[in-house]
Each structure stands twice: as structure tokens, then as C-alpha cells.
Design a protein that fits this description.
74 residues, alpha+beta, 2 helices, 15% helix, globular
């Protein structure tokens, strides 16, 4: 867990593949968004849903660190 201006930032998320349902705990980049993710279950390349900044915001159980810290990405 990290912090940003007094806020606790979670750096791990469980990402779930919408294709096969495989779930995996992953470490998120602390200062950027991740636009692609290769599912370890079926090999599908995940991309963010329209309106989301990254794959963690679309398929993770925790929003990405930039969104947690300031409420927006970019």
C-alpha cells in the first residue's frame, strides 16, 4: 500500500478475464495506467472498456492508483 497526499493507495488488484473468467492478483503501476493485459488463463488480450482509463478500472476489483489518488487519470 502506498500513499498520495494522505490517501492510502492500493497497488494490487484481482483482475478477472471477461472471456474465460480466470482471475489473477496483479500489482498495478503506481504512476500510470495499463492499457493491455494478457490473460494467463486463455491468452486473451484485454483492453479497457470505453470510458475507462485502463484494464484495472475495467476488469479489476480495485481502480488504478492514479484514479484512487486524484479521481482521474491523465
Amino acid at each position: 500500500m502506498a500513499s498520495h497526499a494522505g490517501k492510502r493507495i492500493t497497488l494490487t488488484a484481482r483482475i478477472t478475464c471477461p472471456v474465460c473468467g480466470h482471475a489473477e492478483a496483479e500489482t498495478m503501476p503506481a504512476d500510470s495506467c495499463q492499457w493491455f493485459y494478457d490473460c494467463r488463463g486463455c491468452g486473451a488480450v484485454l483492453r479497457p472498456k470505453p470510458g475507462d482509463c485502463c484494464v484495472f478500472c475495467s476488469y479489476g476489483d480495485t481502480k488504478c492508483p492514479p484514479l484512487q489518488a486524484v479521481g482521474s487519470c491523465g
